[in-house]
Design goal:
6% strand; four-stranded mixed β-sheet; mainly alpha; 286 residues
């Protein structure tokens, strides 16, 4: 596949990120929240608000300072990749400096912003980046969370409002994240389980909460549904619009995503001969 060399370059960069990042991101390097100020529950990735003790500080748009030059270069490169992928979906990406690691998160907003937490970045790299059965570290946990937030930007930009439950909006963002992993990166399911472990760990069972993301199993189902949609697109040279992808998600929601079956996922298979141009022609459009 044409992206194999690019993948190896990214993995080499991330090896340096993880090795240095482990020693550079410590709780005591961040200011503690003001105990006299109010705290807001921002557990959901759509719930960010300023003016609270746990709001943190937002860095400038499209300027990324993770304190290590290689980290900055890696993240800037992935933001460029996703900006080129999500055609017609604008986003200004900022680093959010959370007050402590306890408040790690990433957020998307209707005003066009994506806030990617400094603490979240290092949490993903340090906890979920190791590829199975190897000592190689993958960039996909960071890539996948950024794609999830860009999926929310798709929702805001297109303006869909047919979500029966708050969790459906979150599950669709997981669907878009898996779709990006397949179409843009062409990774096998077995190779990206580290990222999906992050999805699984961040599920919840708070069905009545406005910030409910879906259960761990539902989130895995949604990501896998997005991945297999991209694989079908590549194997059949089909070009989906955002509206068509939304319709596919809606069709899979009751039968494949919302079900609570065990973790049984077949491996995917990509076409043998792909070119950069043929893949880019399939990037989604409004």
């Amino acid at each position: 596949m044409f992206l194999k060399t690019d993948r190896m370059k990214k993995i080499i960069v991330l090896l340096a990120i993880a090795a240095i990042g482990l020693g550079s991101c410590k709780k005591d390097n961040s200011p503690a929240p003001d105990k006299n100020a109010s705290v807001k529950d921002m557990a959901g990735c759509l719930g960010y608000a300023t003016g609270y003790s746990n709001s943190g500080t937002i860095g400038p748009a499209n300027t990324f300072d993770f304190k290590i030059a290689q980290n900055n270069q890696f993240f800037a490169g992935e933001v460029t990749n996703q900006r080129n992928f999500w055609l017609g979906i604008p986003a200004e990406v900022h680093v959010l400096y959370e007050p402590t690691a306890d408040y790690k998160n990433a957020y998307a907003s209707p005003d066009g912003s994506i806030l990617f937490g400094y603490q979240m970045f290092y949490y993903l790299v340090n906890s979920f980046s190791k590829l199975p059965n190897t000592n190689t570290l993958s960039p996909l946990p960071v890539d996948g969370v950024l794609a999830h937030e860009w999926g929310h930007r798709v929702q805001f930009t297109v303006g869909w409002n047919d979500y029966a439950q708050p969790s459906e909006r979150e599950l669709e963002a997981d669907f878009f994240s898996g779709y990006y992993m397949g179409l843009a990166k062409q990774w096998l399911w077995g190779q990206i389980k580290t990222y999906y472990s992050a999805i699984y760990a961040s599920g919840d069972y708070y069905y009545n909460s406005p910030q409910h993301h879906g259960t761990p199993q539902q989130r895995l189902n949604a990501a896998y549904a997005g991945l297999t949609t991209a694989v079908y697109e590549l194997n059949n040279n089909v070009h989906y619009t955002y509206a068509q992808l939304h319709a596919i998600f809606r069709s899979k929601l009751p039968s494949e995503i919302s079900v609570m079956h065990g973790e049984q996922f077949a491996e995917v298979s990509y076409p043998r001969h792909l070119t950069k141009e043929s893949v880019q022609r399939l990037f989604p459009r409004i």
